[in-house]
Amino acid sequence: MKEKLMELVFPPRCAVCGEVLTLQERKGFLCKKCGAHIPFISKDICPHCGGKTDTAGFCDFCLKPFAFETACAAFPYEKVRHAIHLFKYEGGKKLGEGLGALMAEYLLQYHEELLVKTDIILSVPLHPKKEKRRGFNQTHILCQKISEETGLVFRKDGLGRKRDTVAQSTLSTPEERRQNLKDAFETTLDFSGKRVLLVDDIFTTGSTCNECAKELYRADAKEVHILCLSGAGLSLEEK
Ligand SMILES: [Zn+2]
Ligand SMILES: [Zn+2]
Predict the structure, then answer these.
(1) Residue 7 domain flag
(2) Residue 110 C-alpha to ligand 1 middle, in angstroms?
């Protein structure tokens, strides 16, 4: 009953474009158009700069400043912008599950190597206050679904926030952003020798993922890889 009521308030929407699904489409989580062609970032394009890559992930240039080994993102931001907004701010849990399933599909299609070698999936922790306000950590929903679809182990308690930080986007200098995140995260598990896949929704400056990766390396993780739902706000429309 509750679910039916929820459907009236939040009708099922396509996990990619965010359009309301027709009755026939509601069996799945994609509209007909997105289902016919899932608009993943093309394999030879770096999700961060839009330049050429041969790894289906960040090019060497984009990886350079970061502590993690590799990073990839499933969608160009503008393709999923509407769906991400609905997912985050209207509590569209179903939509989040659809997005998680698509991230799993992206791993299967583009990054079999990550599926083979990952020991544990973690999500970038949200500040507890923010999580409380929102009612959920959206990245947990993505990770949960990725785990269900791929069999990879997800530990939501593996990485936490030690202290308050302000939104990185409100800070203007790199130094302010660095200080804001310094020692903000803590690990709560033994990561020695573990290969970690850290999941986030949107990759913007990468500083949050980077700080989490550094903390994981301090906890003796062997490798840290990043998987994001979408790359930065770059326009990666197919020409
Ligand atoms: Zn769609
Ligand atoms: Zn690049």
Answers:
(1) no
(2) 21
